[in-house]
Amino acid sequence: MKNQTLLLFLTILLSFVFHSLLNADTNINKNATNIYYIHLSEEIQPAAGRLIKKAFQAAEQSNADQILLEINTYGGRLDVADSIRTRILNSKIPTIAFINNNAASAGALISLACDKIFMAPGSSIGAATVVNGNSGEAMPDKYQSYMRSMMRSTAETKGRNPDIAEAMVDERIVIKGISDSGKVLTLTSKEALKYYIADNIADDIKQVLSEMNINNYNIVKHQVTATDSVINFLLNPLVNSILILIIIGGLYFEFKTPGLGVFILASLTAAILYFAPLIIDGTANIWEILLFAIGVILLLLEIFIIPGFGVTGIAGIICIVAGLTFSLVNFNGFDFEFNFITGDLLSRSFFRVMAIISFAFIVIFFFGESLINLPGFNKLVLKSEQFSDKGFSTRQDELYQLIGKEGIVINPLRPTGKINIDGNIYEAISNAHYIDKDTIVTVQSINGYSLIVSAKA
């Protein structure tokens, strides 16, 4: 009986303690301001746009009271900056920008979109002229006009001086005592405070919140997952350019070697890694992937089934280039909202894809045969079994003795197939695009266990 009474007493006591602790936590959470913290310290590229998109969604799901962006960037792509600006302006959660060092170009636009701006001592904001990403030269006035209008409207929306915002883009805008040097305006933290662009100067996040009279707060830092890190890595322009090289190179080497092997697998893997993050990011659409796939199929048909190289092959190349290009531009399904910014991005994407493909073919032209003949490459090529009782001759030293000999094509070379030399059957690769059945060919060289042949003149 005593044991039961003691157990009951302990149970009641623990329940009381647990209930008290729960109520205490609830009271603290009710009074605390929930701050969702985002660190934006990278170039404004698609990965940065995806970071902001995911972070704002997470902030909404966590019922954050404030979103705080710590900004340190020299800028980046105008279209990505515009999408980030729009997301901030449409946010139902108040936003705070803490400029910790630099908010240049696209960074200035993003900062102006926030409800509050705080700057660390020695920081700067401005220099928002639109420049060519390759040469660094200022773009034509239509781009500057577009950027000026965005900077102006963003400043007006948040109650800041629109003339100062415009002067950050255009050196021709003169504001007496502020911007009259004939140079694009960049403000220090003290100048930004003086001209009401910044709300205050703060050493760190703690001081930012203190200046806003937020003393009881919970900070939730946005965490980039491993999956997000991989996707952001694949969205890097350099990385997806390398993937295009692998796609083109894999297709070429597969066409040059008999059998379905590692090269086509490498090409398909690169295509998946190229398109998957663009689909997840919302930049690419399914129809663009289908366009690319149709191009590959047409090219395969041209090489392995249809004689010569004509309409099918050209159509395949066009579809491949179009699929790769369109996937880099954010169209809403088939809704082509075309303006000069979209047109510029589309043209730059096209020239980028063409430059990569051209580079790939230059490398292939000068080093293709050397790469195929490397010992490591020979080991990767899938070879079909060639039995001597079926007329095949497979000793490589015997193959070298065939250089200069003539044979007859028994399976069309597209560019691979089989030829007959003195009653023996050999794998052959045409040094042209197509050689028809019964054509007399001459052995020019050896590629692994295949003969490189050309049609007899």
Write the layout of secondary structure elements.
Layout: H1 2-31, E1 33-40, H2 46-61, E2 66-73, H3 78-89, E3 95-104, H4 106-112, E4 116-119, E5 124-126, H5 141-157, H6 162-167, E6 186-188, H7 189-194, E7 200-201, H8 205-211, E8 217-221, H9 226-235, H10 237-256, H11 262-281, H12 286-304, H13 311-326, H14 340-372, H15 375-380, H16 396-400, E9 406-411, E10 416-421, E11 424-430, E12 440-447, E13 450-455
Parallel strand pairs: 1-2, 1-8, 2-3, 3-4, 3-5, 4-7, 11-13
Antiparallel strand pairs: 5-6, 9-10, 9-12, 10-11, 12-13
Helix pairs in contact: 2-3, 2-9, 3-4, 9-11, 10-11, 10-14, 12-13, 13-14
Q: How would you characterize the overall build of this protein?
A:
The structure is a single chain. The protein is α/β, with parallel strands linked by helices. It has helices at residues 2-31, 46-61, 78-89, 106-112, 141-157, 162-167, 189-194, 205-211, 226-235, 237-256, 262-281, 286-304, 311-326, 340-372, 375-380, 396-400, and strands at 33-40, 66-73, 95-104, 116-119, 124-126, 186-188, 200-201, 217-221, 406-411, 416-421, 424-430, 440-447, 450-455. It has 16 helices and 13 strands. The strands form two sheets. Strands 1, 2, 3, 4, 5, 6, 7 and 8 form an eight-stranded mixed beta sheet that branches. A hairpin with a 2-residue loop joins strand 12 (440-447) and strand 13. Helix 2 runs parallel beside helix 3. The protein is elongated and about 95 Å long. The relative contact order is 0.07.
Largest sheet: 8 strands, mixed
Write out the CATH superfamily name of the largest domain. Answer: 2-enoyl-CoA Hydratase, Chain A, domain 1
- Helix fraction by DSSP (H/I, runs of at least 4): 40-55%
> How many structural domains?
3
Chain-averaged pLDDT? 80
Which topology of the largest domain does CATH recognise? 2-enoyl-CoA Hydratase, Chain A, domain 1
Give unreliable regions as ranges.
1-28, 333-338, 382-394
